[in-house]
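Form P-L/3: holo structure prediction, ligand heme C.
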Amino acid sequence: MSTMRKGSALLALLLLAARPVFCVEFDLTADGMRDIDDTTKSLNSNLATKNSKNALGEAQEIAAFFLQVQGYYEAKGNAQDAVDYARKSHELAGQIAKSVAANDLDAAAATVSSLTRICKSCHNAYKTD
Ligand code: HEC
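OUTPUT (holo model):
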């Protein structure tokens, strides 16, 4: 292999390796929202049946999702209410995770109710059907 071919092979390899870094950007989609809807429902039933292990994972998943939603609206701009709703959702999900970890499942369930109110507020303002 010539030096030049080696060079371009190496470049191709570097570009391939770098790709995932450029693909981490988050897009708010109906699919993603449907997934988080399922996760929230499952979280509710796991709290009711006292399955703390699954409930904790779900609360953490919801918290991570809304951190990304927050970043999405920050990048989009001109959507301060959506940024605030997403931040609040992230915080409430984190609070749910803490309550589950502290084995206070009643507090966790109450916070899920607050969270679902934020879902509705954001939909009223930002979801167009
Ligand atoms: C920061 C704003 C915001 C928050 C908070 C939010 N959503 Fe959404 N949601 C949206 C937007 C915008 C759409 C429309 C997405 C689209 O159709 O592309 C949507 C769509 C949906 C849909 C409909 C998907 C479909 O089938 O078209 C569901 C279900 C949903 N969200 C569930 C939830 C749940 C559950 C929560 C709270 C745990 C939540 N959302 C919180 C903005 C938000």
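COMMENT: The chain has one domain: 25-126.
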